[in-house]
Task: structure prediction
Amino acid sequence: MLESPTLTDQINALLPQTQCGQCSFPGCRPYAEAIASGAADINQCPPGGDEGIRDLADLLGIPAKPLNTKFGLHKPASVAFIIEQDCIGCVKCIAACPVDAIVGAAKFMHTVIAQECTGCELCIAPCPVDCIVMQPAPVGNAEQSRAQKSAQAKRRYDARCLRKEKEEAEKAERAKKKKQALLTMQEAKK
Result:
């Protein structure tokens, strides 16, 4: 039996899934939870713009309102672009990308997968050499509907979160085994 989506799930599905934090929450899901609980207003998401606000208003049965510019301005769709000859391979942008749209390796050039980039701009600030700029989204990105882009970004974000959880669990398990091995060695020395 399928569960019907909660109000938070329905709100989250209408958000752009950029995970940019411009709304003052650490991602789209926390913002959706805040809207559902009444702790946040529907007009705090610059990437969603007026269309997103209207969708949220329709869902909640309340009047739409203008974007609260305290949180930023709605901009045309854009993607990050790495000026490759300036990239030093520090991997800070990779760590910052919430949808794993940047590929590269330490001390090697990085690049952005434009079709996967949500335009969140979170990779810009950590770059120590300012080699990341925003450019208009490619034509292929514009052909996808907002719902398709949002769903794709959510899948990538969820996959990244699962991967990070798995990495943390593996790291904790290695630390536990290392600690156990040290204790065993100390016991053997006695």
Residues 83 and 131 are 5 Å apart (CA to CA).
